[in-house]
Write a structure and sequence with these properties.
Layout lengths: L1 H30 L10 H15 L4 E8 L5 E7 L15 E2 L2 E2 L14 E6 L7 H16 L4 H9 L1 E5 L4 H9 L35 E5 L5 E3 L7 E3 L11 E5 L46 H11 L4 E9 L3 E3 L12 H18 L6 H4 L4 H11 L3 H6 L7 E2 L15 H9 L2 E7 L16 H17 L4 E9 L3 E8 L12 H18 L5 E14 L2 E12 L20 E5 L5 E5 L3 E3 L18 E11 L5 E6 L3 E6 L1 E2 L1
Parallel strand pairs: 5-6, 5-11, 11-14, 12-13, 17-25
Antiparallel strand pairs: 1-2, 2-6, 3-4, 7-10, 7-16, 8-9, 12-14, 15-16, 17-18, 18-22, 19-21, 19-23, 20-22, 23-24
The structure holds zinc ion.
Zinc ion (ZN) binds next to loops.
């Protein structure tokens, strides 16, 4: 109001003032919840940030706690979507029951009826780079809303579910205490006090850090680097060497006085083996899969969330490290994946990923219509019968975890396979941070790449972080293992995660760009026509023919190839809604199934179906009772339009 008065009073000068205040407003918005990536946020920092963002952006965010960890820490999802848009079906189709109104069912939330993208991280607590990517995504989304057209459009029509920490106890220990914890509980619990998971680590030399203990051992599988003897090089079992052999363990291992060596591994559940996906099939033989699927509270929280959010079409499960993506399936041969899903995964999602990560896109993906030619060439050059059938081998950057050479599944209870097979999502497991490429100014290839990386990384942390991340080795007498040295990388800064600052920012931004692009592929249902034609009038009644045209204007179809046939999913449907006491259906029931609407994007080598549907009804309407069309798709959105009667 005030600005408007200024405009009229001061003319041109007022306009400039207006422009400045608008710019000021955007700048202010960008600074509402400042964040930087010069350090890891850990569990505490992440929680604090989520809380502030939810408070600062109440119209486009909602913070929900979806469960609690083994130690009682919150597992949180930040829902990012315009909370004033969206058409919950239950606002139009009231729940009724022959014996009375149903009123004890929680109403649908606006986000549940929008196409969804799920991003989570730190399922393995010591792989927390993804948590930072999640926070970066959140920052880009909330600050971009209202100032960036593309982001504003996504937040108005779609929903982002961001769960930065799936394994809060693991992240708390890995970051806040610098004790790497992959599983959902502490690595050991040897004090016999009857409690679990509360034992602190043993800082043997009392320097405030849990690093590594190395000692000379003729049977050891490490040698020192000749260039920089601070670096330990792992040698393969059976390798012959004249050099001094060493053993290296974590500082707090093997001091429990049981006389055994190398047995103090982690205990607890590997959350990425605890999902309800082929779990029973030999899962007991792999470490950490738990007593039954979802036996870990963290896994169960995700399982319940997905069960109540069938609107999720895209899913990302961040892990580290390696700098590549596993797409499903790790549990079944690719021969069993629907060719259309495979085409979307590889020719569209994979191609873009490889391009964005700077890799070489396979020729077969660039010319998918010539697959037969590549197939014939592979018959001569490859031992991978699955790849031959498919027509291409995977590039390093994009692959399946399934062992294709031996036709053998990789693991059991895998989260991305679960999300793909059970819910019909384009799920991915991205292993963030590639030590070969992501240290600014360096690339390491070929033999000894890891050793050369370590030499450079020790210099890098000296130049950029004052040498705080790597401790020089100091002599120490271990209570069980005798003379040796304690030192090495602080666990959170070794090679598993991106270094804070520039290296981390680069990882965050690349993957943010990729997920933003993935969000732009989501389907988007629209009702393009809702009209009625009066066929007959009789007293207070009119007989009306209603026509509804529905279109998916998004790029991808509203379901995966077999998506609509999954037990928890359904086809897209169109409802004709009117007062139940005044509208009688003469032809066509209240809702009509229209199958799965295709998207506007051409899927290579696949027959493109229709992205449009037309539905008709004949109804008898009493008086002027209004009619509405509600088109609803699980993963393509729900929209409403008034029927215009002529
Ligand atoms: Zn992992």
């Amino acid at each position: 109001m005030i600005m408007k008065q200024n405009y009229f009073r001061c003319g041109r000068r007022g306009l400039i003032l207006l422009a400045i205040s608008v710019m000021g407003a955007f700048t202010l918005q960008a600074q509402k919840v400042p964040i930087n990536f010069n350090r890891f946020h850990g569990y505490t920092g992440t929680q604090a940030y989520l809380k502030k963002v939810a408070k600062a952006y109440p119209n486009i965010t909602k913070l929900v706690t979806i469960g609690e960890s083994t130690m009682g820490r919150k597992i949180q999802v930040l829902i990012i979507s315009n909370r004033n848009t969206g058409t919950p079906l239950d606002r139009y189709v009231e729940l009724r029951h022959p014996r009375g109104e149903v009123n004890n069912v929680p109403p649908m939330q606006t986000d549940q009826v929008k196409p969804g993208l799920w991003i989570c991280a730190s399922t393995h607590g010591n792989e927390f780079t993804g948590t930072e990517v999640c926070l970066y995504d959140i920052d880009k989304l909330v600050t971009g809303y209202g100032s960036d057209q593309e982001i504003t459009d996504l937040i108005d029509h779609d929903v982002f579910y961001i769960c930065p920490i799936v394994n809060p106890d693991g992240v708390f220990n890995s970051v806040e205490r610098d004790i790497p914890q992959r599983y959902n509980s502490m690595k050991k619990d040897d004090d016999g006090d009857g409690k679990i998971n509360e034992d602190g680590p043993d800082d043997l030399n009392g320097d405030g850090h849990i690093t590594y203990f190395r000692y000379k051992n003729p049977k050891g599988n490490y040698i020192q680097d000749e260039v920089d003897p601070r670096i330990m090089i792992r040698i393969r079992k059976g390798t012959k060497t004249d050099r001094q052999r060493w053993s290296m363990i974590r500082e707090d291992f093997d001091n429990d006085g049981d006389g055994k060596r190398g047995e103090d591994g982690e205990q607890g559940i590997d959350l990425n083996r605890n999902f309800p996906e082929g779990w029973f099939d030999d899962a007991g033989y792999q470490g950490g899969s738990g007593d039954y699927p979802t036996s870990a509270p963290e896994t169960r929280a995700l399982a319940e969330f997905f069960t109540n959010h069938h609107n999720i079409l895209m899913a990302e499960f961040y892990h580290t490290s390696g700098g590549f993506t596993f797409r499903p399936m790790g549990s079944l041969s690719d021969n069993l994946m629907n060719p259309k899903d495979r085409a979307v995964y590889d020719f569209i999602l994979g191609k873009k990923y490889v391009e964005m990560m700077g890799g070489d896109v396979p020729q077969a993906w660039l010319h998918p219509d010539s697959l037969d030619v590549y197939r014939k060439a592979l018959e001569k050059s490859s031992k991978n019968s699955i790849a031959i059938k498919r027509g291409y081998e995977f590039p390093r950057l994009w692959r399946v975890s399934y062992d294709e050479i031996n036709d053998k599944r990789y693991g059991f209870g895998l989260q991305a396979d679960w999300a793909f097979k059970e819910f019909g999502t384009y799920a991915l497991t991205t292993e963030l941070w590639n030590y070969r490429k992501d240290l600014p100014g360096y690339t390491f290839e070929g033999k000894d790449a890891y050793t050369r990386f370590q030499r450079a990384a020790i210099r890098y942390q000296k130049d950029h972080y004052g040498g705080k991340y790597f401790l020089d080795w100091k002599p120490f007498k271990h209570p069980e293992l005798g003379e040796g040295e304690i030192g090495g990388w602080l666990p959170q800064y070794g090679s598993n995660n991106a270094f804070p600052g520039e290296p981390l920012l680069k990882v965050c931004d690349t993957h943010w760009q990729y997920e933003k692009w993935r969000a732009s592929l989501l389907p988007r249902i629209e009702v393009t026509q809702a009209s009625g034609r009066v066929l007959e009038k009789a007293g207070p009644y009119r007989v009306i023919e209603v026509t509804a045209k529905v279109e998916n204007k998004g790029k991808l179809a509203t379901q995966l190839a077999r998506g609509a046939s999954l037990p928890g999913n359904r086809q897209d449907v169109v409802w004709l809604i009117g007062n139940r006491d005044k509208v009688t259906f003469l032809q066509g029931r209240a809702f009509q199934k229209i199958g799965t609407l295709e998207g506007t994007m051409k899927i290579p080598n696949q027959r493109t179906g229709k992205n449009k549907a037309e539905v008709k009804w004949i109804v008898k309407v009493k008086g002027n009772a209004p009619l509405k069309i509600v088109a609803t798709s699980q993963k393509g959105g729900t929209v409403v339009k008034d029927v215009e009667i002529k």
